[in-house]
Amino acid sequence: KGKAKKAAKTATKDIKTAAVLGAGIMGGGIAYQSAYKGVPVVMKDINQDALDLGMKEAGKLLEKAVQRGKMDTKKMAKVLSSITPTLLDDAVKGVDIVVEAVVENPDVKGKVLADVESRVSDDAILVSNTSTISIDRLAKNLKDPSRFCGMHFFNPVHKMPLVEVIRGEKTSDETVAAVVAYASRMGKTAIVVNDCPGFLVNRVLFPYLAGFAGLIDEGVDFAGIDKVMERQFGWPMGPAYLTDVVGIDTADHCTKVMADGFPTRMPRDENNAIAKLAAADRYGQKNGKGFYEYG
Ligand code: NAD
């Protein structure tokens, strides 16, 4: 009586080769981390200087690993040679996954994703490292959105342990499983979240930063707030320093996206302390001046 129920089980797609589009801060870091953990990667950009810089940064991280006794020079050479920098669109052919990490612009990302889908095999997975653009919006550019989701890394990629895997409305379970497995292979902890402005981490972070900006507007000293968060709360860095690390322009942009997404929960204050610094071209560590100055 009653047949034993068997769960239909499909094997999780094994990611053996990857491509990263964009060799900037994030793309370069993602390519390095993939290669370091044994998944060879094609690193594609439209700019040779970006590719050179991406390779240089990967080389620096590997040299540090050698100095710290984490690997020998033979392994270092092997990892470096498993990153293939290229300007060629067709270099993505045959890879198992493509991680899109080009500029944060929905039109550019849409074009890049549609183009790449036409070049990869029918079972390749596409992911976007977008920080703010809706995964469902990006998915509209694709013929097969079931093989697409978000894969949101944090900066610096080689240090930050978390990756958000963002499931779009049409993302298949197989795609989510394969991307989670790839994140683990890269030594990261993956969390699967639904598509919404800010996903999970930025949805928590930006209301906090908006609260911080509000305190400054009321005249509280930002360095004092950092001290409280670091010394009394035990956080690794306070909100002013964190915003300098993230990039004040990026933080300002994300604050606006979050306020648009959650108008009843997040203040949209065009003129808060973060917006004012961004307008004064103080972008944080990336240009040497933000809340603090960097020599
Ligand atoms: P970046 O400006 O450092 O790099 C972007 C790279 O994309 C550049 O090298 C540019 O030449 C390249 N590019 C532009 N168009 C291209 C195309 N058509 N094909 C291939 N390459 C192209 O930017 P970034 O900070 O690395 O950000 C990349 C993505 O990662 C964005 O979506 C951003 O929101 C997201 N992100 C950034 C951070 C961060 O802290 N910087 C964190 C998480 C996610």
Automatic annotation (TrEMBL):
One of its GO terms (molecular function) is long-chain (3S)-3-hydroxyacyl-CoA dehydrogenase (NAD+) activity. Keywords: Fatty acid metabolism, Isomerase, Lipid degradation, Lipid metabolism, Lyase, Multifunctional enzyme, NAD, Oxidoreductase. One of its GO terms (biological process) is fatty acid beta-oxidation. GO terms for cellular component: fatty acid beta-oxidation multienzyme complex. Residues 198-294 form the 3-hydroxyacyl-CoA dehydrogenase C-terminal domain. Residues 18-196 form the 3-hydroxyacyl-CoA dehydrogenase NAD binding domain. In the N-terminal section; belongs to the enoyl-CoA hydratase/isomerase family. This is enoyl-CoA hydratase. It comes from Pseudidiomarina planktonica.
